[in-house]
Every structure is written in C-alpha cells, then in structure tokens.
Amino acid sequence: MFCGAVGEMTTASFAIRGCPRFTRAKSGSPSRSEAPVSSHTRGSVSVEDVGPIAIRPATPNAGDREVILHHELDGALGEFGQRFWEIIAREHEDTRALLAEQTSKVVSIEYSDRYLFTPASIAVLLKIVTGLRDVVGPQRWSDPEVTITTTRIRGGSGNRAFGVVYADWPDSQMRDAVATQSFRSASARVKWVVADKLGVQHGRSLVILFSSGKRLGLRLDQGVSYWRVPSQSQSAKRFSSRFEFAHSTIEAQANQVTEMNVPIEGGAMPTELFVKARNR
Description:
Layout lengths: L2 H4 L15 E4 L11 E6 L2 E6 L13 E6 L5 E2 L3 H12 L1 H8 L5 E7 L6 H18 L4 E11 L20 H12 L6 E6 L8 E7 L3 E7 L29 H9 L4 E2 L6 E9 L1
Parallel strand pairs: 6-7, 7-8
Antiparallel strand pairs: 1-3, 2-3, 4-12, 5-11, 6-9, 9-10, 10-12
C-alpha cells in the first residue's frame, strides 16, 4: 500500500486517506500545540510525525463570516432592514466597525440577482438599502450610486400567483420602471440593469463601497426572495397582500412597493449569508 512509502519521504508533508499519521521534515516553523507531535531521526534527516490537526489549512481571514438565518428576521417588512443590519453587525465584527465609522460615507451599493420578479422581492431589497441608510445616518449618505442587476423573465414554469405582492409583474418593462422609481426613494442615482440570464452571475451578491476605500460584501445564498409573505391563514394578524398591477401608474405602483409592510418570514429551511470586508 502507498501508506508504507510515506515514511521514506523526508522533505514534505503528505495527507493520504487511510493513513493514520503523516511524516514531514522539520522546517523550523512551530507546530500547532493542539496537534499530537513526536520527533525522531531517520538516517541523516530529522523528521516528526504529526496528527491531522497540524496539517489542516490555516484559519480563514478573520474578516470573513458565515451567518445562518432562518426565522430570525421574521416580522413586519417595514422594520426588516433594521433587523437585517442589526443581526449582521452582531455576527460580523468588521460590519459593526464599518457601520460605526463616522467619517466614512457610503459611496455605492451594488446588488446582483437573477430573480427579482415580484413586488415583495424588490421591497425586501429596498428595505435592506434604506435600513443601511438609517443605520449610517444622513451625514454618511449622500446619494450613493445604487446599481441593481437582474434578468428580464423567469425561466421554467414561472410564478402562477396573480394580483398579489408575491406575483410576477405581467409586464417586465413596468417592473423595471417601478423598481427604478422605488429605489429613488433611497438615492437619486439609481441604475437598474437588465441582462441576459447568462450575463448575470448565479450567486446573489450585495457589495457596499465606503469612502475610506473599504468594501463590504455579502453573498446571499438564496437572495432576497428567500423571505416570503406567509399565508394569511397562518398569520396571527390580518393583512392584505393585494397588489394593483393593472390600471395603475408607475408612481402608484412604486408607492405600493415603498410603503409595503406585509409580514415576512424565512423559508422552510435556513439560508446562508457569507460576509466579508476588504480594502478596495
């Protein structure tokens, strides 16, 4: 078996499935204290036997964090953005520091998601943006450039709901106009970009650039569409999920999006957010 040959290799470390321990030549760098290590001399080369902990990859960048969410953000949509940033700041130290850095303004916000087809999904994203605005305050929010990239139509069988906030817009051009108008409630500089499906990355990413040059990146595993409007039969409070797609102007529909305050809940299974902070 190949495991028997490992003991003859004296200049490198090897990880081989099925082998109980590994041999490497000493390089002068200290081994991890938690790893079982024993040293001996073989021929003219000093070697040490190390356990599996000692050969694991180094700890990831301290600025990276995986956040698991399920029902932690459940509640009224109106306060969704506040709850979102509170939990991200609590779970991720670098986010907390960036949000508290009084001299650094928000320069730009970019979000990419193939599946922004419903008023509810756009309203959730808008609440995340306005929630950030409210956290940093007006002195650090001077009309940052907001760029949102999505696709024109949903593939497959589509969404069969009609006339409600979780239904797809019947007209994608109306969707584009309403979304643009809605985000202008947060910033005057809005770019709504519609691309071919292959031209939009599958991962849903939110990137925020600060004037300090620091960049906060969040990858939302299932995007903002993970949060959904619950069934009225399962809600403790009565609410209306109606949305007037027909016989309504762009401004009227945009007002419905910006003022939407339906209940929101997490999906059947948890979702993951990956958060990192970097210098530009």
